[in-house]
Backbone:
């Protein structure tokens, strides 16, 4: 039987009969001992990939990044991103500070209208152009704030601020 939450958490994604099967495989993989959370997680991942339905996202979709169990996404929780490529088990997305390969479970579709998706694409393009200024702490904070907006538009103040940064960047 599992003895820690780290071992149990990956199992919650499966049906009860699959959970028992995965646990048995994990015990075997650990040489008959109690398996680590990593072993359990790896076996669950293999099963999920085998039974995976196609990823529901399309290029151009605007999604929110959910960190869950992915330490590579630390600091991006709640940020929006644009899907730029759909792969077999993941998507390549562009956030305010770079491109990331993200699994389906780390994305939440924001269900924006086509018009709002276009606006977010343009905003994403503008933020990418300013990335080189991101070494400056103040600029980085502004870009991070704009990259985590919970709405598909800029208010007039945010628009002026972004225009100022773009003008500064053009020099």
Residues:
């Amino acid at each position: 039987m599992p003895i820690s939450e780290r071992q149990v958490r990956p199992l919650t994604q499966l049906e009860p009969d699959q959970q028992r099967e995965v646990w048995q495989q994990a015990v075997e993989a650990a040489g008959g001992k109690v398996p680590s959370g990593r072993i359990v997680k790896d076996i669950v991942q293999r099963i999920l990939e085998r039974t995976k339905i196609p990823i529901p996202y399309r290029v151009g979709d605007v999604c929110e990044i959910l960190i869950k169990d992915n330490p590579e996404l630390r600091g991006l929780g709640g940020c929006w991103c644009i899907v730029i490529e759909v792969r077999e088990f993941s998507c390549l997305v562009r956030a305010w500070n770079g491109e990331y390969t993200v699994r389906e479970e780390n994305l939440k579709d924001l269900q924006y209208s086509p018009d709002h998706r276009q606006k977010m694409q343009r905003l994403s393009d503008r933020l990418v152009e300013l990335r080189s200024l991101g070494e400056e702490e103040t600029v980085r904070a502004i870009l991070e704030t704009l990259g985590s907006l919970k709405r598909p538009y800029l208010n007039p103040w945010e628009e002026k601020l972004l225009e100022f940064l773009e003008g500064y960047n053009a020099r």
User: Anything to note?
Assistant: Residues 5-50 form one domain. The longest helix spans residues 114-129. The chain has two domains: 5-50, 62-170.
